[in-house]
Amino acid sequence: MPKRNDIHKVLLIGSGPIQIGQAAEFDFSGSQACKSLREEGIEVVLVNSNPATIMTDPDTADKVYIEPLVPEIVAKIIEKERPDGIIAGIGGQTGLNITSELAEMGILEKYNVEVLGTSVKSIREAEDRDLFKKAMQRVGEPVPKSKAVNTLDEALQVMVELGLPLVVRPAYTLGGSGGGIAKTREDLLRICEMGLKRSRIGQVLLEESLGGWIELEYEVMRDSNNTCITICNMENMDPMGIHTGESIVVTPIQTLSDKEIQMLRSAAINIIRALEIEGGCNIQFAVKNGEYRVIEVNPRVSRSSALASKATGYPIARVTAKIAIGMTLDEIRNDVTKETPASFEPTVDYVVTKIPRWPFDKFVKADNTLTTAMKSTGEVMAIGRSYEESLMKAVRSLDIDKDFGYSGKYTVWTDEEIKNLLLNPTDERLFAIYQALKRGVSPEDISAMTGIEPYFLYRIQNIVSMEAEIRKDLNPETLRKAKRTGFTDGQIAAFVGKSREEITDMRLALGIIPTYKMVDTCAAEFEAKTPYYYSSYDTECELVPSDRMKVLILGSGPIRIGQGIEFDYCTVHAVMALREQGIEAHIINNNPETVSTDYDTSDKLFFEPVTLEDVMNIIEKELPYGLMLQFGGQTAINLAMPLEKEIARRGLKTKILGTTPDSIDLAEDRERFNALMNQLNIPQPNAGIAYSPVEAKVVAARIGYPVLVRPSYVLGGRAMEIVYDESGLEVYMREAVRVSREHPVLIDDFLQNAVEIDVDAVCDGTDVLIGAIMEHIEEAGIHSGDSACMIPPQTLPGVVLEVVRDYVRKIALGLKVVGIVNLQMAYKDGTVYVLEANPRSSRTIPFVSKAVGLPLAKIAANVMIDKSLREQGYLQEPKTPYVSVKEVLLPFDKLPGADVLLGPEMRSTGEVMGIDYKLGLAFFKAELSADNPLPLEGLVFISVKDDDKATVAVAARKLVDAGLKIIATDNTAEYLKKSGISVERVNKIFNGSPHVLDYIKRGEVKLIINTPTTKQSVKDGFQIRRNAVDYHVPYITTIQAAQAAADAIVMAKKDQITIKALDEYHKEVYYN
Amino acid sequence: MARVYFPGIEMYLGVLASCVADTMIGVLGLEDGTRVEGTGFGAPGVVSGELVFTTIMSGYEEALTDPSYNGQMLMFTYPLQGNYGVSGDDFQSDRIWPKAMVCREYWELPTHHRSVKTLNQFLKEEGKPGLCGVDTRMLTLKVRTEGVMRATIAVGARDEISGLDVVEMARSQPDISAQDLLGDVTCKNHYHIDGRGKRIAMIDLGIKRHILKSLSARGFDIDVFPAHSSISEIEAAKPDALFLSNGPGDPERADKAISAVKHFAGEVPIFGICLGHQVISLALGAQTFKLKFGHHGGNQPVKDLEKKIVYITSQNHNFAVVPGSVEDTDLKITQINANDGTVEGIMSDRLNILAVQYHPEAHPGPLCTLDPFFGSVERVMEGKNPNPGRR
């Protein structure tokens, strides 16, 4: 059926902020869908609260709304835009949920909006556990024995029927959050209680445990004509019991015969037909000895479909969007071959490995056990011609300073520790397996302990054997084999006690260089027009370098805390800038979820680890004019010096574009940077360096407590802490860092109650363009990545802003920045201090770009290829009559055990943006988007430290005046009462029931304001905050946010929020 | 120790090395002058044939036992072969047909619950050489651009093999159309498979077991005839229908079968799969031609022109029916390949003929067309509309 001619305008719902269980994959699929629909002449209206996305670029859709993804607001957008249809299956679970709710509210019917593609009925049938089970039984597909329950009593009954262990799966949640495996009655009650709370419909499923079965996935598509195809199948290396998002996944299936593979394929098609899904869907199976169970169906594009798209070259989201507007698979072209239709099944001639990237380096206290709930923030994908090669490339892509040959922590594990790591799956299990094999534990024994198929363990054993062989005798033949197995020059060098350079030179002298092969959807059967490349040590290289001018852009790898989708956004913008200038843009990256790794984003895509060796291999082959490192986050910046050295060593001509590695070093090296600031006469907080614990005490005493301490050698705020006294410093020096001559500790004066300021600017060496000055809502000391901030600044006086602007210009020019620079400053008692300068794109670039309507990353990329700011016509700082607020999304609900406090270490996974004409409304929207909705009525619980009491009283009064009720414990209640505010006093936890937790658990509290005290009642505070997260009560942990929230609530009760598309806002930007 | 404990590792490393002293080497020569060296596995030997590639990612057990590959050497584009061993359950005939197997890497440690032997053992027992450790994608690209090529593979000890001029040997073998491939693959004698339903006379042009299984499962009573059977021999079985199986090589060489179709057309329903489909087309006056490198894989899209649906099919053929040549016959094209428009299905309402170019019986490959095709066979046999979905 050709494209429907009654659909002219379509509403697409994005997925909101990056969070555990919902990462960049929906920006990738959403952007692809926008492009796909506009190609067919459809007008696209997009709504998403996440500014750090390509999909929310003004160029991606016809109308972009950066608004909270809640049905009430989407309804307003529908009322304004009057789309003909809505596509639910592109924006992840958020998109499905909102579409279902809009249907239930009658909004879709009222405005005559048709749900395109998969219907609401199909979504419900796939997602409601009971309906799903019935549907599967109707078409004869086996499901695990299970029962959906709505109460704890029902759960206990089911326990009697089915026995333990039981898997608990809440209905309608992201990434299985709130679920788990119950081995005891107590487990069951605890997990069910949480799951019932988390589920949007208050329902959980209890099912037989299939622990130890092989977990498999099929990506399937169906069109309105009932044509069904499977895009790819995937095998989880980790057995059932570990969420597929937490598993190491291999495509295609490795351990099953054609008979089983086709049995499951047929089942998958049977299922997609039964559910009448139109578009892409993901189906999960468990298999054991030829028997299978259908585990789950995701009736939408997903993380797995992004992986499947990148693993095969088949653009699932693009095709899903076209199916939604009535086209059939045979009418849609395969965009990679341009010759064949989309109605075929991709076939691969390589092996793909995905490994999740976990945040446990940031959450030392969080439980790192892998379960049926997701904890990872991102993932890497690697392609090789053998399993070993693909696995080793994936490990390398993780950018965790660890690999199989790693000689640090893992070699000192005791046998007992290894055994525990094998028995209890964590992020370290893969490395434990390697160590176990190295110590002679048999693959069979490891299989018994881990439930992993012996096949994979034999494969890892191959890598172990190869390591032994290299250590024994490194001759040309072993080197060749080692490279084919996937070892890097650096690893090999470490094994044989040589330098990395020596091994590289030996390899190059022997002509052992990688070949580049294509991902072409068809295993070379047809010619590919837009393929992408991966390296492998084979004989024929298919890469044909052009003689055009070209630039290689380094991507930022997997999404992790501190290095998120913002960098992918910048990478894509750099590509756009280059292509507009007629320069060939190449990307190297390994994150399958992103737009940067889409087949048609760049002129050439290298799906590779971002390491010195892998980048150098491409440089040797393509001889690009230059490299861009500013957009790939710290991963790329860290390679600046090594790349510059290696390029010079090999006598190559490729340039590092923009800010020089020396200038980068100048910004990153504390002592050099301090010297520059002194020279420029710019104040910095008092600081010192300590090389021993004793020295640390002396330095801290000189500066005066509280101080901010951090090791000099870790980046991104890891292990950074504020210590308030000497005993705190002792604990930190003992537990958090190992200080030494090579690894000193940096100690800074902590500017208490200072206002933190962030600035993003572009400099071309002569002029400086200030994108925006952002004022943080939280005080300095909260990591800038976790802080809410606003454009324009709301409390800073004009003279201070002038000082800020002056410093920005001086520093940018002083550092000789060519490209982007991000500055962090603090304002206290009349002085502006510079905290740090980052000569690279920051995580606020997309937010600033969306707020002021300037494509900063593009402007910077142009500067780097010698188009001055003057030439580009960007010299003046834009101003806005509206307020943009950035708020962050914290992952605490996904990480049991972690404290929810903010500090100098970054914790957030993603961000949202709220825009309106008043700060209160913009903040209200931002909080709503950050899944921390501020209540307009009900109970507010307040408990703050003494310093904050006066301020909180002002906020409390506003809340009471706005009709909310306050409850508080001892001191706070006392204080508020004295201030004449009506407050109900409740027990602290140790006073016994009914205490504050009872109110929280009963769902009576609608907002919690709890600022942490430095010492006392820490435990109470922790329990309150943890319960707030677990019971999904909005919470605020800083006094500044409390003030903003009170204002926001007052304003939201009084004023109408504004519904306006981004381009309408941008028209109001002015310069003066 | 490692050797005893992990026999596969030695093998694997051997594969990577391609010149470990105690393993066999393998060399491949193509008629275009290409010569590559890799590691040998399976049985030592020197063989010549046509090099074809299949893009199916699983199903080597079924593919290797498919008689349609007689005279050819089968190269798998998916790099890892042997992962799940060999079960014996999934054989499509009782032996291996391709003259040799080529892959990038072969695996010696299967742990699949049905596996009874390794792929290496299987090839060894069947006396078939295997070549691995070569850049199969490079070879695939050659076949794609230059078409199917004659090839020679030699596997054995280095000193015995390295001196052979495999390129010259490849060039000196006869073209596949000149070879009698049918004689090898067809059954020697007529045999009977009991069923309670209607009687089908099957002409065995190199039949895959799953065609017979699929018909038996529907209750048909089947007489299987050798390819060279005379019309009177077939008539003696009083068939309710004639069925022509898949098989290797050029359909023009199946002259007896062509005559049989001419004779039975209009008298009883006639069905065909793959080579059988080409034979029926020839018998009714259409023509066939040789594709550049054929269709071999499990992902070929076939579009049903009436239902508009696309099926993903398993295919294995080098010859195809010339689309324009069907026009003046009693046949009409019902299905085409969505990739290249080649003929995938024909039928004749008047003559009760139904045939497909792909393998609806699958094994290996997707099962999408199993029920649609054999269901239609059943309906035609019952005198019903073969395609109830159509108007």
Question: Could you give the topology of this structure?
Answer:
The complex is a heterodimer of chains A (1072) and B (391).
Chain A lengths: L8 E5 L11 H15 L3 E5 L15 E3 L5 H11 L3 E3 L4 H13 L2 H4 L3 E3 L3 H8 L1 H10 L7 E4 L2 H11 L3 E5 L9 E3 L2 H14 L5 E5 L5 E9 L5 E9 L12 E3 L6 H17 L4 E10 L2 E8 L4 H10 L3 H9 L26 E7 L20 E7 L2 H11 L17 H9 L5 H10 L4 H8 L3 H19 L3 H10 L3 H8 L3 H10 L5 E5 L12 E5 L13 E5 L10 H16 L3 E6 L14 E4 L4 H11 L3 E3 L4 H5 L2 H10 L5 E2 L4 H8 L1 H11 L6 E4 L2 H11 L3 E5 L9 E3 L2 H10 L9 E5 L5 E9 L4 E12 L9 E3 L6 H17 L4 E10 L2 E8 L6 H8 L3 H9 L4 H4 L10 E7 L20 E7 L2 H11 L9 E5 L5 H13 L3 E4 L1 H9 L5 E2 L10 H6 L3 E6 L7 H13 L4 E2 L2 H16 L7 H5 L6
Parallel strand pairs in A: 1-2, 1-4, 2-3, 4-5, 19-20, 19-22, 20-21, 22-23, 35-36, 35-38, 36-37, 38-39
Antiparallel strand pairs in A: 6-9, 7-8, 7-9, 10-11, 10-13, 11-12, 12-15, 13-14, 15-16, 17-18, 24-27, 25-26, 25-27, 28-29, 28-31, 29-30, 30-33, 31-32, 33-34
Chain B lengths: L1 H4 L1 H11 L7 E6 L4 E8 L2 E10 L5 H5 L7 E5 L3 E2 L18 E3 L2 E2 L12 H7 L3 E4 L3 H11 L2 E8 L1 H4 L4 H7 L9 H4 L5 E3 L5 E6 L4 H9 L3 E6 L4 H5 L5 E4 L10 H10 L5 E4 L1 H9 L4 E17 L5 E12 L10 E6 L5 E6 L4 E4 L13 H12 L10
Parallel strand pairs in B: 3-4, 4-6, 5-7, 6-8, 11-12, 11-13, 13-14, 14-19
Antiparallel strand pairs in B: 1-2, 1-9, 2-8, 3-9, 10-12, 15-16, 15-17, 17-18, 18-19
Helix pairs in contact in B: 11-12
